[in-house]
Design goal:
- This protein has 14 helices and 30 strands.
- By secondary structure, it is an alpha+beta fold.
- Helix 1 runs antiparallel to helix 4 and helix 13 crosses helix 14.
- The longest helix has 27 residues.
- Bound molecules: adenosine-5'-diphosphate (ADP) and magnesium ion.
- The site of adenosine-5'-diphosphate has 14 residues, from helix 6.
């Protein structure tokens, strides 16, 4: 173990040496109350950043025990993560302004959390220390070591950063407590859903719209949410007392209303209600059943052996729909697939928006039934299946549908939005459904079979074409909506509930681990459960041996969605 002065001296000595000599700093370096560990040293200035972690003694941080009790520890680590990563960004900006001008000055990088509170590998609170993981691009002049800059970064900036962001004196107690409270309250709200026969809850006063399509912060001057009286429920929270808002009942709920009146915004807020939001987000008290999956049409996706026969009968050319596979699904077959796969992954709530649904999957009206007889239409529309999904399988659906009244008859609850304000129009909608000329119900009495699928992963070996074994997997994560493994892109744009890129990285690691441990030799449902169990028992670090600081906890539903979109997936 080297003391900080030794590291500084070593880096000064290395100044001007070949970049490879940085290898000597690998290992542990002690500062007062801090330990810096360099886990991996990059081979050259252009390689992926070196990986390091900083361990701050719990005694030095001196965080009150009440901030760390039970599940609070996750929210506390999340809070500290935000503190440190904000400092990292500020430091980077300051260094850019100071600018030495020559050479590669080195850079710190760290996972920046999204609007939701989740377990991550970037900051972890252990028994005796708080661990912060980050990447360091070690500074260079050309291909030579910039030792003085490295010493300033590792021996001055990083310890200072830790002191400024992790010690109790540096934290605003009010803000910490607000963060922990928001987390615990959201969990409490979600826990009460089942007791009240609800699948979702939107508190009065919640701010649902976002600043823009690419910014996840709340819109200024938005109209706060206000529940219709009949749907109002009161739930209890440990920190905010009783909270009143709109309960979304189990069963089938329809959201209707004119274009641009806030329907999709409400549905989207509920779809991220599977997560707990940070204070100030506006959706802190919007919660949804944890298993809810937003499903949509996804033309062009690949499908591997999914039983979509509940929705789609024999296709042209006698293509089977009991084990439906394709490299290029249509709008309707992709949406049917997405629903069946969500059920396979344990979804008890489906969220569907007409904006992203296939029309011929959603509806088949009276006139169309008269013109095209059922024996010429393989699709049984969702409107004829949505109730069976609830009665046969206990799966609720929340549906945005402003363009057709065909769902009035099957909906338990109908909510109309007007100028972002919801009203309960269930009675009127039901009255209309009773008097209207009914369409034929199609597709039989039952939803149909849900089959357990077994799928096999390809061997992840870096995409070697020479047939030799032993290559290591190549993973590239571009953003929340694109992942590449072994040069195979996986399009995740339709996996809308991924909250941050760390989840995609963690899912990629889970895929590689699954393949290595042979978890894909069992039914997919059991495989997903096994991954959950392993992460719950051993933490996210179980997914990778590399002390990675860039992984975020994901839901099994989203892992399943990524697995199902691998074009190299094989059906047993
Ligand atoms: P719809 O799905 O009914 O067509 P959207 O949900 O897409 O409507 O919303 C239309 C626009 O209104 C969006 O730009 C959205 O950000 C904005 N919006 C939604 N809800 C509110 C609100 N409560 N206050 C202010 N603007 C809102
Ligand atoms: Mg819309």
């Amino acid at each position: 173990m080297a003391a900080s002065q030794l590291l500084r001296d070593l880096l000064h000595q290395l100044d001007g040496s070949s970049y490879k000599a940085y290898r000597q700093i690998k290992g542990e370096h002690c500062f007062a109350g801090l330990t810096l560990r360099i886990h991996h040293v990059q081979a050259d200035p252009f390689a992926l950043p070196s990986r390091a972690s900083l361990w701050v003694d719990r005694g030095m941080a001196n965080l009150p025990e009440t901030w760390l009790r039970g599940q609070r520890r996750i929210a506390m680590a999340d809070f500290l993560n935000r503190q440190v990563s904000r400092r990292v960004i500020e430091l980077q900006q300051r260094r850019r302004v100071d600018g030495s001008g020559s050479g590669k000055r080195g850079a710190l990088s760290m996972l920046c959390p999204s609007q939701v509170i989740l377990p991550r590998t970037s900051v972890q609170i252990h028994e005796h220390a708080i661990e912060v993981r980050f990447g360091v691009g070690l500074p260079a002049f050309g291909r030579r070591i910039a030792g003085r800059a490295a010493a300033a970064l590792l021996c001055d900036d990083i310890p200072q950063l830790a002191a400024e962001s992790l010690r109790v004196e540096a934290l605003s107690a009010d803000r910490v407590e607000g963060h922990l409270a928001a987390y615990e309250d959201a969990i409490a709200l979600r826990q009460q859903l089942a007791d009240h026969n609800l699948v979702g809850f939107v508190a009065n006063g919640a701010i649902l719209p976002r600043r823009s399509g690419v910014e996840d912060t709340p819109l200024d001057n938005a109209v706060p949410f206000q529940s219709p009286k009949r749907l109002e429920v009161q739930l209890e929270t440990p920190h905010q007392g009783s909270v009143t808002g709109m309960g979304i009942p189990v069963g089938i709920t329809l959201i209707v209303g004119g274009g641009y009146h806030g329907k999709s915004t409400l549905l989207r807020a509920l779809s991220v209600g599977v997560y707990n939001h940070i204070p100030g987000d506006g959706r802190e008290q919007v919660v949804c059943d944890l298993t809810a999956v937003k499903v949509r049409a996804e033309e062009g996706r690949s499908v591997c052996g999914v039983n979509i026969s509940p929705f789609i009968g024999a296709l042209p050319q006698d293509i089977s729909t009991e084990r439906f596979s394709t490299t290029n699904a249509s709008g309707s077959t992709s949406q049917a697939t997405n629903i069946i796969e969500a059920l396979e992954a344990g979804a008890k709530v489906l969220l569907v928006d007409e904006d992203t649904a296939a029309t011929n999957f959603m509806i088949r009206d009276r006139m169309m039934q008269a013109l095209i007889s059922k024996d010429k239409e393989p699709i049984t529309p969702f409107v004829d299946k949505v109730r069976q999904l609830y009665t046969d399988h206990g799966v609720s659906t929340l549906l945005v549908m402003g363009g057709s009244g065909d769902y009035f008859g099957v909906a338990d609850t109908v909510i109309a939005l007007e100028n972002y304000k919801p009203t309960d129009v269930t009675e009127q909608a039901h009255a209309l459904a009773r008097t209207a000329n009914p369409r034929q119900v199609e597709g039989g009495q039952e939803f149909g079979p849900l089959t357990q699928r077994q799928v096999r992963l390809p061997r992840f070996d870096g995409g070697r074409r020479d047939g030799r074994r032993g290559g290591s997997p190549k993973v590239k994560v571009y953003d929340v909506d694109c992942l590449e493994i072994d040069r195979q892109p996986i399009d995740l744009r339709a996996v809308e509930q991924l909250a941050e890129v760390g989840q995609v990285r963690a899912i990629a690691e889970a895929l590689i681990l699954s393949q290595r441990r042979g978890l894909d030799q069992q039914a997919l449902g059991d495989w997903l459960a096994e991954i959950d169990r392993q992460i719950d028992a051993n933490g996210l670090d179980d997914l990778s041996e590399l002390n990675r600081g860039d992984l975020t906890r994901f839901r099994r539903q989203d892992l399943a969605a990524v697995i199902s979109r691998l074009r190299t997936l094989k059906r047993e």
